[in-house]
Amino acid sequence: MRLVRFCRWSVIVGTLLIWTIKWGIRPYFHFTQPTIYILGIAPNLLGSFLLPIGCYWLFRKYINLYEEFQLRIFCALCFVLLVLNEMLQLFPVFGRTFDYNDIAASAIGLSASYVFCNKYLFSRYATFP
Fold first, then answer.
1. One-character DSSP codes across 67-121
2. CB-based burial of residue 71 (10 Å sphere; 0-12 exposed, 13-18 middle, 19+ buried)?
3. Which pLDDT score is estimated for 59?
4. Is 95 left (phi over 0), alpha (psi -120 to 50) or beta?
5. Alpha carbon 3 to chain centroid, angstroms
6. What CA–CA distance (Å, rounded) separates 22 from 27?
7. Rounded distance, CA 102 to CA 40, Å?
8. Which of these, 83, 71, 85, 84, lies nearest to 117 by C-alpha position?
9. Measured between alpha carbons, how far is 80 from 102 in angstroms, rounded to an integer?
10. Complete DSSP assignment for 34-58
11. What's the confidence (pLDDT) of residue 1?
């Protein structure tokens, strides 16, 4: 399977999974505490994991994520933007809630994505974009 096709399907399936959790499972089903916590951070964890993969799929002509330095800068910039997004939720205008666990889940997701993309995905398929 080509890398572009793998990235496209990963982002599509991941987005559908995030939407299922946010709008299909959490509002209509009630779970015990460990499951509530996991379902609460899962969209941030999955979404931040999919950022470099989606960036490669959509912007591969403009951003070269094969290079480790650019991938590291991209992940750091994404983390700053994710923290900024979470900080904007402190304003009551947006009607959202600020949560430190979402920031931690975003950090874990981006770190895991960096390791996965750098060590496995982009290095393995570097000759077959």
1. SHHHHHHHHHHHHHHHHHHHHHTTSGGG-----HHHHHHHHHHHHHHHHHIIIII
2. buried
3. 92
4. left
5. 18
6. 7
7. 8
8. 71
9. 13
10. HHHHHHHHHHHHHHHHHHHHHHHHH
11. 57
How far apart are alpha carbons 41 and 16 in whole angstroms? 16
Number of H helices, E strands in the chain: 5, 0
Query: Is the four-CA dihedral 107, 46, 83, 121 of positive or negative sign?
Result: positive
The distance of Cα 107 from the centroid of its chain, to the nearest Å, equals 9
What averages of pLDDT result for each successive group of 10 residues across the chain (129 residues)? Answer: 88 97 93 93 96 94 88 95 92 85 96 94 66
Do 106 and 81 meet the contact criterion of CB atoms below 8 Å apart?
A: no
How high is the pLDDT of residue 53?
A: 95
Token pair belonging to 102: 């979402």
pTM: 0.90
